[in-house]
Amino acid sequence: MNFKNGLIAALTGTAITTSIVITRPLISVAFDGQELSTTTREITVLINSSNGSNGSGVIISKKGNTYYVLTANHVTSKRGDKNGDIEYTVIAHDKKPYPIDPDTIKPVANDLDMAIFEFQSVREYPVATISSSELVETTPVFVSGWQRPGTVNSTTVTRQITSSRITTILEEDVHGGYQIGYDNTTLGGMSGGPVVDAEGRLVGVHGLADSDTPETIGFENDSADARTISELLKTGFNYGIPIRTFLSEAAQSGIYLNLDVENSPPEELTDTPVIETDPEKDQIDDINSVLDDVERVRDVIERFPDVIPRLPSGL
Predict the structure, then answer these.
(1) Percent of the chain scoring above 90 in pLDDT
(2) How many domains does the chain have?
(3) Domain of 33?
(4) What are the DSSP calls for the chain, one per residue?
(5) Residue 175: which CATH number?
(6) Tell me, what's the pLDDT at 299?
(7) Which of 25, 82, 215, 261 is most exposed by smallest CB count within 10 Å?
């Protein structure tokens, strides 16, 4: 896998650092359910598109007022439809929306279902700690993401976090880089969200659910890739891309974000933490009212492009 050549140019608008920060804690401590819920909430973002769909992502780096989000490429890969260009908005954990400059949305590699994009904010948002330790079957994992509207009503969006263990590690990844399977319950809209270990460290990106079809993730019906993926679906399992795959591709391509990476193995758990979400913090009652704020910003940018040459630094 190789990065698209344009990734460096697209992301150097707010200079990428040229080193990965690696820390090696002496003691590995598992989080309780409340800590895991809080940690995953603060790094998980909702990605809304103007065509009515949504996905999730995880904040992995920061440089000044620029935040970098990792997601599944199929969440942000559509650039237009019969009604025109598709606009994307990212909503942080504090329910603040930010317009996404489409020029910053870049696939990580041609055959990897991962993408990076930027958003600008003067607010302080936590950045994910990444675990580079090797995953093994039975490792406890937790998947965080924002489900699509419709479960409660057409405008309510809820963040979910579900717990289980890794059930499968494929010897070779299927198309898109999917390699780790887990039986966490996931819902539509959680694609691109973080898969974390018991210490809240990022170990993968979720992207394939049992209810998915090749069409929903952007593959042609009659392609070999679609047939391969179809064999994995409807099994009761979900699949993610290991974060080690992202780290390997970034290093091989000479592109580095300022990442917080730990290489210690996760602590063994005797009991799986009981995870509870907070309705006040993990639910957006009316997503349309949140998106109205960012539409006003877009209108100003379109009307006064010379006055506001870049996206706003915060709302």
Answers:
(1) 42
(2) 1
(3) 26-287
(4) ----THHHHHHGGG---S--EEE--SS-----HHHHHHHHHHHEEEEEETTS-EEEEEEEEEETTEEEEEE-HHHH---EETTEEPPEEEE-TTS-EEEPPGGG-EEEETTEEEEEEEEE-SS-----EEE-SPP-TT-EEEEEEEPPTTSS-TT-EEEEEEEEEEEEEEEEEETBTEEEEE-----TT-TT-EEE-TTS-EEEEEEE-TT--GGGGT--TTSHHHHHHHHHSSSS-EEEEEHHHHHHHHHHHT-----EEE-SPPPP-SSPPPP---TTTSEES-HHHHHHHHHHHHHHHHH-TTT--S--S--
(5) 2.40.10.120
(6) 59
(7) 82
Residue predicted with more confidence, 75 or 212? 75
Q: What is the pLDDT of residues 200-244, one digit of tens each?
A: 999 999 998 755 544 555 555 445 554 444 444 444 468 999 999
In a domain, 250, yes or no: yes
